[in-house]
Amino acid sequence: MPQDLYETLGLTSDATPDEIKRAYRKLARQYHPDTNPDDPEAAERFKEIASAYEILSDPNRKARYDQFGEAGSSSGMPGPFGDFTDLFSSFFGGTQRTASTGPNVERGEDLEVELTLDFEEAIFGTETEVTVRTAVACEPCEATGAAVGTKPVSCSRCDGIGQIREMRRSILGQMLTQTICPNCNGSGLEIPNPCKECNGEGREIKNISIPIEVQAGVADGNTLRLSDRGAIGRRGGYYGDLYIHLQVEEHPIIERQGDHLLHRLHIPMTQAALGVDLEYETLDSREKISVQPGTQSGHVFRLKGKGVPRLNGRGRGDFVVEIIVDTPTDLTPEQEDILREYAEKRNEGVSSNQKRTWGRR
User: Fold this and answer.
1) What is the CA radius of gyration of the chain?
2) What is the residue extent of each domain of the chain?
3) What class, spelled out in words, does domain 1-57 have in CATH?
4) How far, in Å, CA of 96 to CA of 90, rounded?
């Protein structure tokens, strides 16, 4: 027995869109495969939850489900299967107005949009929405394409099958051909009185906003595919898919390298020489970094598990802090004299006073 989609999300049939969304988020977090890596039952439960939300979060599919049950939520019309008369005709000739594949249910167009995320939204995930111009079910005719008070009728040429099969004779014997009915374009239906709002298409073009949950760890150039969130097919056909191409803005100081993050931290020469304890902020935590005396440029501190969450996996990458020791370029005359005295005590040769023009402002 098919499972009730509302029961799958722990709701009743009068649940509001916000209640449906909240229930899905709660259950998705509870049964997500990342949270239950060794529990196949949780994975199956997660699929059921995602499937239920996919239908109930779409107003058109939800309305069909509420009216017709699970069979109506796919937006398609099941076609009849062939019977023994087809087999009989294929052996004994003649023209048979039938086809085993049934009416051709049109699938809507796939859509593509671009979504720009800032650096941290890509790292930690976000909830947002995209606006798309798409074909949606015509409300006045309820996607049938027929004027209010009327309904489509079976095609007079193919008897509602959507295809025409003919047995032809040739020098090689009898050949069976099967073609889409040119009268109804394979739909199996005719519209005597088309809907004035959609001109018999059963759909109309609108701008709609679609909520998006971006998973933590996505990267620039990734593409999200949302099944059945594209355009609806003509006269209640199947939905196409929506492809969301992600563009991630660069961070001013942090570089992403796969699942790891890299920050080249500049410190003054004095701190590198004498050492220093630093309070360091990653993207989501405060850490202590102890720079030992004599630290050189290129020294690396690796903060485990502070990097990018792994897509479809467990754990996070690392946050790598690479030390860059800065040579001062804005010395005052007094500071320069101190450095010269220091160099003299270490027997380190430096340029003479007469040639020191760098660093002066």
Assistant:
1) 34
2) 1-57, 75-248, 254-327
3) mainly alpha
4) 9
Class (C level, CATH) for 254-327: mainly beta
Q: Which of 145-154, 206-215, 269-278, 322-331 has the lowest mean pLDDT?
A: 145-154
Residue 141, SS3 per DSSP = coil
Query: Rounded to an integer, what distance in angstroms lies between the CA atom of residue 156 and that of residue 189?
Result: 8
- The pLDDT tens digits for 90-141 are 333 343 333 334 456 788 999 999 999 999 999 999 999 999 999 999 999 8
Tell me which DSSP letter residue 160 carries: T
pLDDT at 72 over 80: no
Write down the pLDDT at residue 80: 32
Tokens linked to 220: 């620039």
Alpha helix positions (H), the chain: 5-8, 17-31, 40-56, 59-68, 84-92, 119-124, 269-274, 333-345
CA trace torsion 218, 131, 234, 165 (10° rounding)? -20
How much of the chain exceeds pLDDT 70, in percent?
84
In the three-class reduction of DSSP (H, G, I as helix; E, B as strand; rest coil), residue 286 is classed as strand
Partner residues linked to 267 by β-bridges: 325
Return phi, psi of residue 238, to 5°: -70, 155
Neighbouring CB atoms inside 10 A of 102's CB total 19
pLDDT at 245 over 60: yes
Here the tokens at position 12 are: 């009743």
Q: What is the mean pLDDT of residues 2-12?
A: 84
Per-residue pLDDT at 263 exceeds 80: yes
Cα dist from 201 to 138, 240, 307, whole Å: 8, 16, 50
199 contact partners, CB below 8 Å, separation of at least 6? none
Reply yes or no on whether the pLDDT at 27 is more than 60.
Answer: yes
Phi, psi angles (nearest 5°) of residue 221: 95, -10
Please compute the mean of the pLDDT values over residues 215-234 and round it to a whole number. Answer: 93
CATH architecture of 75-248: Sandwich (2.60)
Same fold: 1-57 with 75-248:
no
